[in-house]
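Q: My labmate handed me this sequence with no annotations at all. I'd like to see what the chain might look like in three dimensions before we decide whether it's worth expressing. Could you predict it?
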Amino acid sequence: QIGQLVTIEANLVDEVWGEARPPVPLSPFRVHPLEYAGKSLADKVEEIRKEMESKKATMSVFCTLDDVAYLFNMRAKGDVDTCPVGIAYATVTKDTVSLYCDEAKVSSPEVQDHLSEVTLKPYDSITSDIAAHCEASRKNRVWLDKGRANFAISNVIPPKSLVDAQNAVVPMKACKNEAELAGMRT
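A: Here is what I predict for the chain of 186 residues:
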């Protein structure tokens, strides 16, 4: 036996940063117009829910910034210097769509209107919400692409509740619709 892997609850990156860690960026989201996106948030959620049914998943989790930006048709300037994405997570269930981010990011009236059918939640509550979903019923299954998720999120999903597969947004982004193709040409 070579050794034993022992996991810890503390985030080692946080411990290394200590008090010198800069705050999480709070750049506000802006709506990416439908004329460029080509598909509404509602249409994308409908497609995700169909895929969830085929995978027998009760929740789908989106962990990467580009997946969240694409799904919600929103962009941000300043959270990541080289990409128009904002710091956020998202979940979709049969009945709800939730966006996990700081409330300062979604304070503009245009964004508030755009997200009128979305439940806004604190950024740090994603893991507890996923854990609660798993614990609510033995039949609940969470669709998560572990290869695109962090350890904290992956760790709260019991193996029997996990559907580990590429999420539904990745192929949507890969297959450009007419509006996206037109935008690429201009």
